Amino acid sequence: MILRILICFLLVLTLPGCGGSPVVAPTLPSGIALQDVCDRYHVSWQWDGVTQVVMLEYKGNKAKALVGSPVVLLGREKIVLSSPLRRDHSTIYVPEDFEDKVLAPFGVSMGRMPQLEGFSRVHAIVIDAGHGGKDQGTMAPSGMNEKEIVLDIAKRLRVLLEGSGIKVIMTRDTDQFITLPQRTQIAAQSGADLFISIHVNSNQDKAIHGLLVYYIETIEKRYLTEAQRKINEHIFTQRLNPVASRTLQTIVADMMEALKTAQSQKLAKMIVREARQEGRLNVRGDGMRFCHFYVVRNTLVPAVLVETGFLSNRQERAKLVSPDHRQKIAEIIARGVLDYAND
User: Fold this and answer.
1) What are the residue boundaries of the structural domains of the chain, listed by start?
2) Distance of CA 233 to the CA centre of its chain
3) Which of 7, 55, 173, 313 has its CA 20 to 30 A from that of 221?
4) Contact 196, 304 (CB under 8 A)
5) CATH number for the segment(s) 32-106
6) Residues ≥6 apart with Cβ < 8 Å to 36
7) How far is 164 from 168, CA to CA, in rounded Å?
8) What CA–CA distance (Å, rounded) separates 129 from 148?
9) pTM to 2 decimal places
10) What is the pLDDT of residues 150-172, one digit of tens each?
């Protein structure tokens, strides 16, 4: 958000008139995707496309609802939601009070996230699930691979952040191969305020374990002229104002880089702090490392890469199999993001 205000202010001072057409945000579906809610809380569900009946089950508790109706039957109890369930193509959406009125009585532990405050610097985030498709990432002897683990964590993180009022753009939400340049270009086109890449670590030393958050402290001059970086800078500045001069683009890029390095470190600290809070997650050393990873250095906004654990470590590998542990990781990252956004 700070970046957009700073850049737009500079454009107004430098160029005659406002320039360009207003950017109209796409209309997003109202409510929450039932699939995401059930995945987050490990609730089983199914939908009959003929009768339009939705069935839910959690630890022996069952509920039934009808698409197009706000009524949910929880055992013999009738619960009325704030709005009806609705369907958009093959996706079922439920209203915001679905969790409190339906899932809470099920006995589901909510683990509420703080909400985005009105003055927040963050309104949109790119979540980058590493690897995908033909690129499996780190592999465990058991056959578990990184691409599946990080996609699951990324989806959980999306649900948490969207529930707190942040728009989320995914570089991938399926088992799809996306190149590194494409990932950074998605970030440049999205207008997001932050970029978070999610990975799983590995090391020949099987004893090494713990979460690590990587960020860029300074960027070497040779990286400033990378072809993809120049493409991303052009996309970003053209999106703000199509008549921006080359000189102005350079000024904007320099301003963004200075802000990015400072804010990336701050975001990394917030995530590590949340991981250490009450011993929620093992952290390696101080939990932070400098890096020049491609997706971190070629994004224009504050960016971090989170290594969520070591698949090479037996104890950590066993945890990464657990949906509850992946949910814990997602909650830690989400809380770190919200701490940063609301600071």
Assistant:
1) 32-106, 115-342
2) 22
3) 7
4) yes
5) 3.30.457.10
6) 155, 158, 159, 162
7) 11
8) 9
9) 0.68
10) 999 999 999 899 988 899 999 99
